[in-house]
Amino acid sequence: MTLDLYIYEKSLKLIRNRKNQVQEQLMHGIVEDFTMFKELRAKYQELATIEQELKSLLNKVSDNEDNEKEANTTELH
Length: 77
Hints:
By secondary structure, the protein is mainly alpha-helical.
């Protein structure tokens, strides 16, 4: 689980950094035209979706590990 958590945290950090960059570009950067604006918004939304899916995946992995521990404990008794 330690390796999973490390990968999760690093991935989440990268996604959040990229989201912040896109957000800064949208809010304070030069957006040449409406097409570029739409592309940046699509990138931001996709990063937000990936971030949420990553969180859900970690929850599933954690739940599975908890269930396995419970099953092993039950088998021992």
